[in-house]
């Protein structure tokens, strides 16, 4: 019996550090190859790390909420048989529990070996239920949250929300399956027991994960790319009517349709006419790189902060397929399930601050992109039509662009084309 230390891996995105969000195991728990050990939060997403060993958990070497450097050991696992040089455990080793055969919920044929500790294939992601197997490990002094109380069942985004609200999850009663804590449970708990804020004290919040990465990226972008922002007020009545027609179409049944879909179509059509706006500035080689595909990023507010997942090769999608892709991106982002691959490789971004009732803004470019379109609030306003003042749906658009590769003429043409498309989507689609 040897003890193997599992070190925090680079999960394939240039990772330098990550925060331990949720341990799925505790000392004394049996684990099998590819069982999920821990959820970590990188600068881009919450990622599950599977076990590269089969055995019994010896020690947790990092605590929840701790930021760990890549290559640092995070867990020690007792492994049967001879193996490489191992770190001896502080306590006597216990034999792993028997009866570790595959269950009905997890056939052995579906398990796939993982060498780097990053993940398993989609066919092998089914997790076995946690079995309450008693440990024969001798009692040891309390060293962490797992030694004296059972694990709290909830999703990683809700753990983040609870931390922000100052709520101890162990005090919340879960109403979900198996005592799972839902968002409503957390909100009900905070409503009943609202802590009284002490306004005489300053509060210090650690900057980690997405917020830390976002801050660094925005500072780098603001002081690297010369930003220019242009504004345009648009009559959106045609878009509102078009969205209403799509919602009644049987082909779109069960698919959420919004003006954001039409704005996405407008941006894609503008790029088709003006491909230079879908590019980046290569400072090292002093070149402009024009992207072959449009990886359309959609900014989404989540409990972890602002995320910008993107739809890969969006220019190839039909209208309904694009609507489905946008809905899936937004849903997975809010649930904290966005894959790192969906957060990288974006070529242009749309951000919608209108959902917060804000009319306009000057968005900062995402690093490596030449432009970003901002949608303001959709408002009913007086508008002149055929020399008559009538009520119309209007919105303010703002387009920020990198003036090194997008000059004022190109930026103006792109923004004007997007506005024309939103005024008459049928005209825009007819010319695609």
From TrEMBL:
Its cofactor is (R)-lipoate. Keywords: Acyltransferase, Lipoyl, Pyruvate, Transferase. PROSITE patterns: BIOTINYL_LIPOYL, LIPOYL, PSBD. Its EC number is 2.3.1.-. It comes from the Bacteria. Residues 82-106, 118-156 are annotated as: Disordered. Residues 3-78 form the Lipoyl-binding domain. Signal peptide: none annotated. The keyword Protein biosynthesis does not apply. It holds the Pfam family 2-oxoacid_dh. Residues 82-101 have a biased composition (Low complexity). One of its GO terms (molecular function) is dihydrolipoyllysine-residue acetyltransferase activity. This is Dihydrolipoamide acetyltransferase component of pyruvate dehydrogenase complex. It comes from Micromonospora echinospora (Micromonospora purpurea). The lineage of its organism: Bacteria, Bacillati, Actinomycetota, Actinomycetes, Micromonosporales.
């Amino acid at each position: 019996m040897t003890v193997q230390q599992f070190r925090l891996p680079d999960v394939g995105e240039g990772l330098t550090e990550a925060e331990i969000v949720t341990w799925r195991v505790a000392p004394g728990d049996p684990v099998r190859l590819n069982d999920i050990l821990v959820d970590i939060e990188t600068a881009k997403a919450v990622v599950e790390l599977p076990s590269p060993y089969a055995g019994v958990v010896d020690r947790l070497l990092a605590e929840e909420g701790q930021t760990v450097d890549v290559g640092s050991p995070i867990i020690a696992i007792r492994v049967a048989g001879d193996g490489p040089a191992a770190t001896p455990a502080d306590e006597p080793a216990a034999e792993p529990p028997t009866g570790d055969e595959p269950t009905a919920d997890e056939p052995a044929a579906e398990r796939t070996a993982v060498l780097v500790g990053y993940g398993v294939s989609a066919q092998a992601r089914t997790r076995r239920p946690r079995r309450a197997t008693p440990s024969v490990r001798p009692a040891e002094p309390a060293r962490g949250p797992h030694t004296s109380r059972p694990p709290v069942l909830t999703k990683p985004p809700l753990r983040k929300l609870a931390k922000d609200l100052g709520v101890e999850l162990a005090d919340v009663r879960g109403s979900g399956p198996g005592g799972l804590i839902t968002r409503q449970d957390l909100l009900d708990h905070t409503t009943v027991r609202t802590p009284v804020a002490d306004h005489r004290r300053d509060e210090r919040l650690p900057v980690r994960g997405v917020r830390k990465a976002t801050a660094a990226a925005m500072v780098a972008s603001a002081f690297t790319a010369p930003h220019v922002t242009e504004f345009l007020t648009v009559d959106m009545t045609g878009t509102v009517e078009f969205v209403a027609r799509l919602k009644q179409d049987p082909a779109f049944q069960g698919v959420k349709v919004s003006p954001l879909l039409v704005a996405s179509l407008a941006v894609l059509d503008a790029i088709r006419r003006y491909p230079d706006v879908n590019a980046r500035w290569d400072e090292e080689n002093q070149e402009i790189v024009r992207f072959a595909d449009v990886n359309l990023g959609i900014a989404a507010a989540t409990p972890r902060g602002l995320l910008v997942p993107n739809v890969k090769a969006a220019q190839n999608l039909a209208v309904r397929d694009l609507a489905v892709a946008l809905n899936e991106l937004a849903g997975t982002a809010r649930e904290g399930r966005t894959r790192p691959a969906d957060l990288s490789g974006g070529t242009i971004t749309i951000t919608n601050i209108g959902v917060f009732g804000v009319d306009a803004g000057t968005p900062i470019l995402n690093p490596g992109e030449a432009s970003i379109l901002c949608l303001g609030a959709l408002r009913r306003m007086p508008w002149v039509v055929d020399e008559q003042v009538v009520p119309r749906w209007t919105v303010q658009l703002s387009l920020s662009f990198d003036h090194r590769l997008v000059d004022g003429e190109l930026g103006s043409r792109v923004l004007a084309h997007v506005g024309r498309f939103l005024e008459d989507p049928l005209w825009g689609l007819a010319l695609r």
